[in-house]
Design goal:
This protein is of the alpha+beta class. It is built from 12 helices and 23 strands. The model has no long low-confidence stretch (mean pLDDT about 95).
C-alpha cells in the first residue's frame, strides 16, 4: 500500500471529549472515525486490524468445532416476547416500526434468532452436540458511551453458541472454550495481561467467566490471584469472602481492567421458551442444553491499543498489525532513492510481506518518523542517502529505541520470520 494513496490521514488534533488512550491514538493515526456518540467508522488501517483479529478467532472457532453462519440484524418482536426480554431489556433495545405495524428490534444478541433456527435441525440425540458462530453487528442503547471503542452503541461481535444433550457435555465444552479463549488472546498479543475472571453465573451456574485485560483505562475492577493467575470481579468478591475460588488465596490485588470476552452456561433458559426438544435413545423428549461465548471485536482492538502503546503511539502485536513493515524513504525527490525504495517495496511484496510505503513527497523526515510511531507497525525500514551510499537499510522494531543497518539478505531474513 502506498501511503500517499491511503484513504485516511493522520491528524494532530481530536476532540477533547476523547479522553481514552485508544480513542486518541486510533483517531489520530487514522484507524477509526467517530460519527456520533458510540458510533465509529472503521477506516482501511483499522479494518485490516479487525480482519486479522477476526481470522485468528475464526481459526480457533473452527478448531473448536464451530460452524460459521450469518444471522439477521432485524429481529421480530414475537421472538423476544417469548423469552421475556422484550420487556426486561426494553430500555437497552433499539425498537423499530415495520411497514405492517409489526415491531422489530436491532439485535443486541442472537439467542432469539438462533434457537428457533436450531429447532429446525435438532430433533434427535444424533444431532447433538452442535456449535455455531458468527461475526455480526450488535446494537445496544448504552446510556453512557465512553472509552472510545471500548463501550459503543454499535459494535462487531463474535458470538458462538453450543447445543448439548446434557449438562456434562456442556461442562466439558465450556472448559475447552476457556483454553481456546486463552489462546486467542495470546495470539492477539495480550495473553500476558488477560485474566480468566470469575463473575456471576445467573440462574443456571454458580459462575460465568469473563476475560479481563489489565489497563488503567479499564472501567471494571478485578481482584487478581497471583498464585493461580485468575481473577474475581467486584460483583462476587464478597460472595467469595475475598478469597480466590480456585485456591482459597486471600491475598488478592485490585486491578483496573476491560472485559474482552465472556462465556456463559445458559442451560435451558432459551431452549425452553422455544420448545427446543430432542429425542433421547429411548425416545424420551428432553430440552437441549446451551452455552454462549462472546468476543467484542472492536473492543478487543481498543484493548490491544490500551495495553500496547508508548507516548508516541500504538505498538501493534505482529499478528494483528495492519502491515508488517513501514517503509520510509527520506529523500523522495532523489531518483536513486525513489528507485531503491520501489525495488525494495516490490521485493517485500513478492516475499509475501505486507508493507506500507511512505512515498509522500510533501512530508519531511520528522513528520514521517512521527506518523510511523503513531501508526505502530512492527518494523520500520528507512531508505535515505546515508543508507543508500552504504548499500544498506536501517531497520528498527517499533518498541526498540535504536535501529541497525543491514543488507538486503539480512533485512528479508528479519521481516519474513513468522
Amino acid at each position: 500500500m502506498l501511503q500517499s494513496k491511503l484513504f485516511s490521514k493522520t491528524s494532530k488534533d481530536i476532540s477533547k471529549d476523547e479522553a481514552s488512550l485508544n480513542a486518541q491514538f486510533l483517531i489520530k493515526a487514522g484507524f477509526v472515525d467517530k460519527l456520533a456518540a458510540g458510533v465509529y467508522s472503521i477506516l482501511p488501517l483499522g479494518w485490516r486490524v479487525i480482519r486479522k483479529i477476526e481470522n485468528i478467532i475464526r481459526e480457533e472457532m473452527d478448531i473448536a468445532g464451530g460452524q460459521e453462519i450469518f444471522m439477521p440484524t432485524l429481529h421480530p418482536r414475537k421472538n423476544w416476547e417469548k423469552t421475556g426480554r422484550w420487556e426486561s431489556m426494553g430500555e437497552d433495545l433499539y425498537k423499530l416500526e415495520a411497514d405492517n405495524d409489526a415491531k422489530l428490534i436491532l439485535g443486541p444478541t442472537h439467542e432469539e434468532v438462533l434457537v428457533p433456527l436450531a429447532k429446525k435441525f435438532i430433533n434427535s440425540y444424533k444431532d447433538l452436540p452442535q456449535h455455531v458462530y458468527q461475526f455480526q453487528n450488535k446494537f445496544r442503547r448504552e446510556k453512557r458511551v465512553k472509552s472510545g471503542i471500548l463501550r459503543t452503541r454499535e459494535f462487531l461481535m463474535k458470538d458462538l453458541y453450543s447445543f448439548h444433550a446434557d449438562q456434562e457435555d456442556l461442562d466439558n465444552y465450556y472448559e475447552k472454550i476457556k483454553e481456546v479463549y486463552r489462546k486467542i488472546f495470546q495470539r492477539c498479543g495480550i495473553g500476558d495481561k488477560t485474566y480468566l475472571t470469575y463473575a456471576s453465573g445467573g440462574t443456571f451456574a454458580k459462575y460465568s467467566h469473563e476475560f479481563q485485560a489489565l489497563t488503567p483505562a479499564g472501567e471494571d475492577l478485578i481482584y487478581v490471584c497471583d498464585k493461580c493467575k485468575v481473577a474475581i470481579n467486584k460483583e462476587i468478591l464478597n460472595d467469595q469472602k475475598n478469597k480466590c475460588p480456585e485456591c482459597g488465596n486471600s491475598q488478592l490485588e485490585e486491578k483496573k481492567a476491560v472485559e474482552v470476552g465472556n462465556i456463559f452456561k445458559l442451560g435451558v433458559k432459551f431452549s425452553e421458551p422455544f420448545d427446543l426438544f430432542y429425542s433421547k435413545k429411548d425416545g424420551e423428549k428432553q430440552l437441549a442444553v446451551m452455552g454462549c461465548y462472546g468476543i467484542g471485536i472492536q473492543r478487543l482492538m481498543g484493548a490491544i491499543v490500551e495495553v500496547k502503546n508508548d507516548e508516541q503511539g500504538i505498538i501493534w502485536p505482529m499478528a494483528v498489525a495492519p502491515f508488517r513493515v513501514h517503509l520510509l524513504e527520506l529523500d523522495p525527490r532523489d531518483a536513486q532513492i525513489k528507485e531503491n525504495a520501489k525495488n525494495l517495496y516490490q521485493t517485500l511484496q513478492e516475499k509475501g510481506v505486507e508493507v506500507l510505503w511512505d512515498d509522500r513527497e510533501d512530508k519531511l523526515a520528522g513528520a514521517k518518523f512521527a506518523d510511523c510511531d503513531l501508526i505502530g507497525i512492527p518494523y520500520r525500514v528507512v531508505i535515505s542517502q546515508k543508507t543508500f551510499k552504504e548499500g544498506k537499510y536501517e531497520i528498527k522494531k517499533r518498541e526498540e529505541k535504536e535501529g541497525q543497518l543491514v543488507n538486503l539478505e539480512e533485512l528479508l531474513k528479519i521481516v519474513t520470520v513468522k
